[in-house]
Design goal:
This protein has helices spanning 26-41, 120-130; strands spanning 5-9, 52-61, 71-80, 84-93, 96-109, 114-115. The protein is an alpha+beta fold.
Length: 133
């Protein structure tokens, strides 16, 4: 990766479950925040006009995240296909990886509800930023 993209995400009281750590379902919201920030910042995409669906989501947990933790999420695109791409995520607290995630995203046409090739104005910045071929 040429220049790592990271996003600080505040841990909110509402994210905490009765075991006093971030509920596992909230991690998906953190992924969404990081994904959209990446698309807006790195690819200069207006997310309200960019059609994507998640077809696969994976999460692995190393340790719980607490309310007082300062959370950072690192995002990268590791695979790029014709209509889809894979994003990987590292959840970090104090530089330590506390969880990882992966999503497979598909660009699609909302009218036909079918996959659609990624336009060059999206593909090229991904290739450049991630040093992919």
């Amino acid at each position: 990766m040429s220049d790592e993209f990271t996003l600080s995400i505040p841990v909110r009281f509402r994210d905490i479950d009765r075991l006093n750590h971030v509920n596992n379902a909230v991690y998906s919201t953190y992924l969404e925040e990081a994904r959209f920030a990446y698309l807006e910042s790195v690819l200069d995409v207006d997310i309200t006009e960019f059609e994507l669906v998640i077809v696969n989501l994976e999460l692995s947990f190393a340790r719980p995240i607490s309310l007082d933790d300062e959370l950072e999420v690192a995002v990268s695109i590791t695979e790029l296909g014709e209509t889809s791409w894979t994003m990987t995520y590292e959840f970090r607290v104090d530089g330590d990886v506390v969880a990882t995630g992966k999503t497979t995203n598909v660009h699609f046409d909302p009218e036909s509800e079918q996959p659609e090739p990624l336009p060059d104005e999206i593909r090229e910045p991904i290739l450049e930023h991630e040093s992919l071929e």
